[in-house]
Structure formats: C-alpha cells, structure tokens
Amino acid sequence: MNVFTLALKNLQRKPFRTWALVIAVAIAGGAVFSTATVMWGVERSMQVGFSKFGADVLVVPKNALVNMKSALLTGEPSTFYMNASVVDEVKSLAGVGKVTPQLFLTTAQGSHCIIGNAFLVGFDPKTDFTVLPWLFEKAQRPLAPDDAIVGGNNPYQVGDTVYFYGRTFNVYGKLDRTGIGLYDNAIFIQIDKAYELAEDAKKFSDVPPMGFGRGDISAVLIQVGNSAKANLVRFAISRNPAVKVITAGNIVTSVRQNLTALFAGTVALAAVLVIGNILMISAIFSTIINERRKELGLIRAVGARRHMVFALVLSESAFLTTMGGLLGILVGVVLMRVFARSIGFHLELLNIPFLWPPLGDIAMTGAACVLLALLTGALGALYPALAGSRMDPYDAIRAGE
Q: What is the count of structural domains for the chain?
C-alpha cells in the first residue's frame, strides 16, 4: 500500500464529508469556468462584429459622440450634421487610405413613409467600402439611383419597394448580418437621393425640417493605409476643433466596460467561493488531523517519514479538489447555458450575435479551472499537512487515546 491508495481509503471512510467537499469545489470551479468562457465569447462576438464595420476611424461632429455610439451599437435613429468639406480635409492627410461620407436621416410617421422613425443612411457607392462589401443578396443588375439596400434585420426582401416622403425605392440588396446595429437596422440610399428626400419633405406641412442641406454629411468613415497607424491619423484629424474622432477600438472598449458590469457579481461570487473553499478545506483538514492523531502517530512509529505524512494529507486534498474540478466543468456547462441566454439576449439588443469560443479554447479554460481547483486544495491543506507531519509519534499516540 502506498500514499495514494491510503489517501483513497481515508476518503472512503467519510463519504458524506468527502462528497460535500467535492460539491463545494465543483460549484466554485463551475462558476469560474462558465464566467471565463462566456466573457471570452462576448469579447469574441464584439471583435468579430466590429471587424465587419470596415472603417478604422470615424469622424463626426463634436457634439455627436454619444449619439454616434448609440447609432452604431443599437441602430437607433440619430441625426447630426457637419459640412462635407471635412471629407477633402481628411483626404489630404498622410496615412489616410479610403474615405467615404455618410448622411443620417429619419423617416416620418404617417402616410408619407412606409415605416416611421426608421434609420435612413445616405452613402456614396463610388467611394463606399463599408456597405456594398457586405451584400448578402442583391439583384442581378447594376445599382441604380432609385435603389435601396436594407440591413439584415429589416423585413424587406430583394425586389420589394419602399417609399419615403412620397419617393419610391426598389430594394436592390440586403446586407448580411454584421452585428453593428446601424448596419443591421438601417436602410441605405444614395447620398444624392437623401438630399432630394430632404427637399421632398418640405412639401409636407406636417413633417418637421430635416435639419440639413445639400453638402452636409453626418460622418466620415476612414480606412487607414497599410503602413499607417490609426492613432496618428486620429491625432491629425483631431486638430480640427469642430469634429470628434472615434475608433472601432474605442467602441469595443465602451461596450466591453458596460457588459463587464453584468459579470461583476458572478466574478465576485466566484472569488468568494474560491477563498471560502480554501478556508473550508483548511478547517476540515485541521479537524481530520486531530481525528487521526493516533493513526498518524502509529504510521510515524512504524517508520513513515514526515514527508510521507505531508504527502498523504496533500494527496487526499488533491483527490478531492480534482474530482470537484472535473465535476465543476459539468456544472459550468449548465451555468454557461444560463449565461448564454441572459447575456445573449443582452447582446441581441445590441444586434451583436453571441459567438462561443473555439472548442479547443473552451477545453483549455476547463483544464485551467481544474488546475485552479487543485491549487485551491493544495493551499487549503498546506497548513494542516505541515502540522500533521511535525507531530511527535509518541505524543500523537497518547493524544489519540
């Protein structure tokens, strides 16, 4: 009989205590595993979603920063304008690759538009690099001036017609779902037609003015050159006091900060559970050492060295916490399903599809959680193991009588 088989025999003597410890470790391990995996999935979802956006830098009017983020993430109608001369100013800067303008406008309630309070985006198909590349379906003909392109969340299909302010548009194409609220919910028309809609809207007495004129735009989308750095381009543009510069990284960070708050309680609970398990294991193994003083004294009396007693206690803890860690993976899978529903729903509100990490990464996370459980057991049993190994055999036998 060696240390490991003796450790297993000792654990079998108190099945209730053994399984209580295993389940406690499993709950903590499952919470850590599920939280880490789901947060990784959220991060991946945002990165994939915003990578489809295509633009490295966005330039908007200075007072439009909050509205722009809302428009990008949720697709809520937002209107803000600046002069299109910013486009030429940006084009002249070093490091700038592609540049395209966009104009935001909203539809009116009532019979003037097929749908009220919808988000229309005027874009320039000649310079565009963020809309046309994501066409999922399209008509088998060139894009015409009176065509519209709808986002992936729109109910309209290729071949349908829509009308805004009395002007009819043919649905030329539909975008693949990008995970960006603006693109998934908006309807895109050519920017010249957007200016014409503003003129058409003046014909209706019950429609408020659009708030922009020909030559105004809402945003400039920029793709930096291959050898340029977005931060340097951003710094150069920010010299203009009338504009604000946004990068995709800023938006991802903002969303990540908001979503992290949703996990804060779970992360704190997992940390408390891990610390609680360390203290609980330490207390229980201290009790076990006291119960087995005579037994440990006899083992030492027949020739066992101190390190063997130390290894015996740590082996029992290792078996317990490893079993708890493996069981925690199963608990974590259940918790992940719960998280995926709630967090997935929250992401759906932002029009960001939830993407699970690759299976290999999930497996690595699970293995790390099992190692964490093993470390928890080692830390918890360290002091009792040292105390047990330092007992004098004679005193231990007498104290156990």
A: 2
Cβ atoms of 161 and 171 within 8 Å: the answer is: yes
Q: How far apart, in whole angstroms, are the C-alpha atoms of residue 306 and residue 100?
A: 75
**184 and 87 in one domain?**
yes
Of 163, 197, 217, the domain-final residue = 217
Is 377 part of a structural domain of the chain? yes
> What are the pLDDT digits (tens) for 323-373?
888 998 888 888 777 776 776 666 666 555 667 778 888 888 888 888 988
Phi and psi at 87, nearest 5°, equal -60, -50
- Indicate whether 107 and 212 sit together in one domain: yes
Per-residue DSSP letter, 113: B
DSSP letter (8 states) at residue 1: -
* Apex 322 CA angle, 41 and 290, nearest 5: 140
pTM tops 0.85, yes or no: no
Taking a C-beta distance cutoff of 8 angstroms, is the pair 233, 96 a contact? yes
Cβ atoms of 127 and 193 within 8 Å: the answer is no
